[in-house]
Amino acid sequence: MPRTRTETPPKYRHHKARNLAKVSISRRDIYLGPYNSPESHQRYAQVIAAWQAGRTADEIQAIVKGTAMPEPDSINGTAATITVGQLAKRFWTEHAAMYYTSSTGMSRGRTANVKVALRAVNDQFAAH
Fold first, then answer.
1. If you ran DSSP here, which 8-state letter would residue 49 be given?
2. CA 48 to CA 8: how far, in whole Å?
3. How far is Cα 50 from Cα 44, in angstroms, rounded to an integer?
4. SS3 at position 33
5. Among 20, 23, 46, 94, which is most buried by a count of CB atoms within 10 Å?
6. Which residues does 108 contact at the CB level (< 8 Å), separation at least 6?
7. Given this model, what pLDDT does residue 34 score?
8. How high is the pLDDT of residue 106?
9. Residues near 73 by Cβ (< 8 Å), separated by ≥ 6?
10. Torsion angle of C-alpha atoms 25, 60, 56, 15, degrees rounded to 10
11. DSSP one-letter code for 19
C-alpha cells in the first residue's frame, strides 16, 4: 500500500555524485541546481510553496524548469481559454512549419504528416 502524504515538507538533499541539490516529491527527484547555492535554496522555497499548495510532482518539476503553464489572468482572475483548433494553429505557425522544413525551404516530407495529424486532432476535439 502506498504511503500517504505527510505534513512534513520534503528535505533539501545533496546528490553527492553530481554535487547538486535535490528534493524528492512523490518518489521523483527534482534537481535544484548546485548544492548549497542561493539559486538552489530559492528553487527549494518555490518547490515547498508549490507542494504546500497541493501541486503534483509534474507541475512542480515544470515550475523548477521554467516550463509551467501561465497562472490565471491576473486582471480578471480567470484562466485563459484556448480551443484545440487555436492550439493546433499556434503549433503549426510558431513551431512545426519552420521545424519540419529544411533550411533551403524544402519540405522534409514530415510537414504533410504533421498537417494530417493536426487535422485529425482538430476534427476529434473541435468542440473542446
1. H
2. 10
3. 10
4. strand
5. 23
6. 100, 101, 102
7. 93
8. 66
9. 79, 80
10. -10
11. T
Ramachandran angles phi, psi of 8, nearest 5°: -80, 125
Written as nine digits, the cell of 36 is 548549497
Helices 38-52 and 57-65: crossing angle in degrees, nearest 10, is 150
Residue 61: count other Cβ atoms within 10 Å of its Cβ: 19
Question: What is the enclosing helix (H) or strand (E) of 21?
Answer: strand 20-25
pLDDT, tens digit, 9 for 90 and up, residues 98-123? 777 766 666 667 777 888 888 888 88
What is the structure's pLDDT at 79?
55
pLDDT in tens, 20-55: 999 999 888 999 999 999 999 999 999 999 999 888
DSSP assignment of 66-111 equals: T-PPPPPPTTTS------HHHHHHHHIIIIIHHHTB-TTS-B-SHH
Give bridge partners of residue 31 from the DSSP assignment: 22
Residue 32: CB partners within 8 Å, gap ≥ 6? 12, 20, 21, 22, 23, 39, 40, 43, 44, 47, 64
pTM of the shown model: 0.52
